[in-house]
Amino acid sequence: MTTAEHTEADRHASWLELFFDLVVVAGIGTLAHLLHADHGPGGLALYAIAFVAFWLVWACFTTYGNIAGEATRARPMLLGMAALAVMMAAVPEINGEHATAFSIAYVIGRILASRPFQRGTVVLDLPVVQALGGVVPWMVSWWFDGSVVYILWAIGLAIDVGVLLLISGPRLAQNAQEHLDGLRDRIDGGERRGRAGRRDAARSGRRGRAGRGPGEGADLLGSGRGRDPRRGDRDLPETVRTLAGDEAHLGERLGLFVIIVLGEGMIQAVAAAGEATWDVDLLLAGAGTFALLVTLWALAVRGGYAGVALLATGAVSPRAAWPLHLVTTGALATLVAVLGGVLVEPGESLTADVRWLLLVAFGLYGLLGAVVHLVLGIRRADPRGRQTALLLAVPTLVAGAVIVIAGDRLAAVGQVWVLAAALLVSYAGSVRVSPRPADTGAPHLA
What we know:
mainly alpha; 14 helices; 3 strands; transmembrane helix; membrane; Bacterial low temperature requirement A protein (LtrA); transmembrane
């Protein structure tokens, strides 16, 4: 198997990629409104489905741009942008008359993202871009109504996430090579039988029985064009070509998504403050929200990778970076969506369900980062990895315990500052215990 890797130096996001990311700005804001409308169990499930679907389409097109580099074509990216825009426009009525429009746009987006990759190639970093099995339940949902639709969506996403988590790139490439070898063997055998049949027909003097001519029948590769049997297998590659992206460029693209999520949190906070009563509680809550968002930026973007706090660029492989990015951005998007509602009445206590949603999102983000650093620290026998894990885990757990114990006695402004203080402690500790810069020989979390 041959591998294509990008070695362009100092490559950054193109204007086309930045323009494509504008749909992320609209998407995160729309999903936040969906969460505000219903944060019960059913609403949370629908929010999670919509976020994962949106993220998957974005990730597939981002992978295309990352691998193609300067050869990235505007048409696929703009069509993908249009598909994502339709999905987000359908979100306000996703549990009603616009559910079918959302699913159709999702299916179109996934198919469009897979088309630029030629046959005989395997994307190692994000194999789900070529695996369209998870799209089938979405198509089946077009013939159903009610909760069955969303169950089918969840099944489709579970298939895709399973591919993302469980199927390794090398194993996928090996399977593709075995499939290609079998295909070439079948073609060779069919052509030998075809030639023998034509010789027998010529000897018997029968006419009109020599088989199909060129242009008749479907091409075995699925292009719908006929094959000339005389060409043999010359149009089939002998080996599968594996595609690997540009890690530095991918890190920038993943970081831009995180910045957009945090920026949406700032937008929601400003919008809520504009409608709230301007008093001391609002001033303190606004300052706490600003401190929290800025510290998240310092931890997750300036000092992190793939949304994971304090993770050095290249510390994990792109294959592992994608699922980490999905979880971290999902937690951050939920966190900033809840924070947007805090400033409406900062002097009041949060309801129990909102408070738990805030704690789960905050805890998931901090503890996931701690687990990643702990695993890397053990693999490298590096005590700094374990120290960084403690810097993230301990403040997260203490902040959660304080909010749980205080309960309704602690107003929203106080809860915001408890979370902000936990992040500030983690950041202050990271200044003294910083992760070692990644090098080419660093072990990857695969």
